[in-house]
Amino acid sequence: MSPVLETEEHKALRAAVAALGKRYGREYLTKVIAEKGHPDELWSEAAKLGYLGVNLPEEYGGGGGGITELSIVLEELGAAGCPLLMMVVSPAICGTVIARFGTEAQKQEWLPALADGTRTMAFGITEPDAGSNSHRITTTARHADDGADDGTGTGTGTGTGTGTDAGTGADWLLTGRKVFISGVDIADATLIVARTADARTGKLKPALFIVPRDAPGFGRRQIDMELTGAEKQFELTLDDVRLPADALVGDEDAGLLQLFAGLNPERIMTAAFAIGMGRYALSKAVAYARERTVWREPIGAHQAIAHPLAQAHIELELARLMMQKAAHLYDSGDDVGAGEAANMAKYAAAEACVKAVDQSVHTLGGNGLTSEFGLASLITAARVARIAPVSREMILNYVSHQTLGLPKSY
Q: What local confidence, expressed as pLDDT, does residue 255 receive?
């Protein structure tokens, strides 16, 4: 039997989410942004329909699917003009990491709430001097040595017990800075990537901590952006933020394994975000090219208009194929294969999105720059996928030395 790219269930999910997106659309999101609000109504309805938690385990209130299903949801909302950026962060990164590596208590506390949309979680890795280079992260986590965590204080001892100190009741102290962290103002907590000292070697290794929004010493400052979006960007400061032992997610010694368990879904979901945006822009341009008549024929009859739009469609479809491959590999447990494919999917989708948006705006001419048609704002938004969560140049570095075996220059 030949392999099926999308099952009937996937097609039904795609159609159902598209219908939801159509009921809200670009006008809804534009209004939310203009009012400096958040897309709470769409977020809540998507949650009630089971779309936000479609990738999370059924026993914790999720849909029991994977990143394949979650990427379909985000792509279709994007294609309708109302993508939910926090889907990339809350269920895809944080939900996945907690589902795979969290303690039972962490799963019980967070997964049902992430699935039903009543709670959200942000993700903090990027730093001012390190970007997303996890080897240069300077935010550190150390054990408090003040004697206040002997089991009678805030440490609950419900950590996994598999790390060097997990489960001992020892509090953690986090210090450092993060930048370009999305949605911290609305998130109930932020999953922070910090570095801990290896007890055996003394070297620093990444670890993940759940930091509540109101934790003392946890500060935020909104960054002014030219990018218009409902989700705001923040710089974070952690000044000896005290956390209980069970704030650590997973094994203190797992390091990069747990980190990339969240980063690969992030890349796949970024691809879905970009493909959805590209499809939305292209649909507007195609509709315009069918109707706009300057001489005797609609402008879409001219190959100078038609061919670039056809090319944009082809490139978006090719990017979706790589995204589907990456999601399939990830959901089947092939983390190594998924890492390569997720990077490629993110790269391909970002390039296809930028070209689709550019060509769509160009097709409309002056109208493409008006608020009425709402395409010009996508010029800036489309570039986000080229830059975040990892730049296209770093993806090319990854492919050149991981896939092609070329030597590193860094």
A: 67
Return all residues near 309 (Cβ < 8 A) that are at least 6 apart.
Answer: 282, 285, 286, 289, 300, 359, 360, 363
User: Which residues have a Cβ under 8 Å from the Cβ of 208 and sit 6 or more positions away?
Assistant: 97, 101, 191, 192, 193, 194, 248, 249, 250, 258, 259, 262
Instruction: Tokens for 44, please give them.
Output: 């809540």
Which among 351, 268, 285 is positioned nearest to 74, based on CA atoms? 268
Q: Which pLDDT does position 156 carry in this prediction? A: 37
Distances (CA, A) of 223 to 180, 181, 198: 8, 9, 34
Task: Please report, rounded to a whole number, the percentage of residues in the chain having pLDDT higher than 90.
Answer: 82
Residues with Cβ within 8 Å of residue 399, at least 6 apart in sequence: 340, 343, 344
d(CA 367, CA 365): 5
The whole-number pLDDT of residue 203 equals 74
Please enumerate in sequence order all residues whose Cβ is within 8 A of that of 141, keeping only pairs 6 or more positions apart, or say none: 172, 173, 174, 194, 195, 196, 207, 209
**CB 85 within 8 Å of CB 231:** yes
3-state secondary structure the chain: CCCCCCCHHHHHHHHHHHHHHHHHHHHHHHHHHHCCCCCHHHHHHHHHCCCCCCCCCHHHCCCCCCHHHHHHHHHHHHHCCCCCCHHHHHHHHHHHHHHHHCCHHHHHHHHHHHHCCCCCEEEECCECCCECCCCCCCCEEEECCCCCCCCCCCCCCCCCCCCCCCCCCCCEEEEEEEEEEECCCCCCEEEEEEEEECCCCCCEEEEEEEEECCCCCEEEEECCCCCCCCCCEEEEEEEEEEECHHHEECCCCCCHHHHHHHHHHHHHHHHHHHHHHHHHHHHHHHHHHHHCECCCCEHHHCHHHHHHHHHHHHHHHHHHHHHHHHHHHHHCCCHHHHHHHHHHHHHHHHHHHHHHHHHHHHHHHHHHHCCCCCCCHHHHHHHHHHHCCCCHHHHHHHHHHHHCCCCCCC
Residues of the chain with pLDDT under 50: 1-2, 148-167
| pTM (2 d.p.) | 0.92
Q: What's the confidence (pLDDT) of residue 204? A: 77
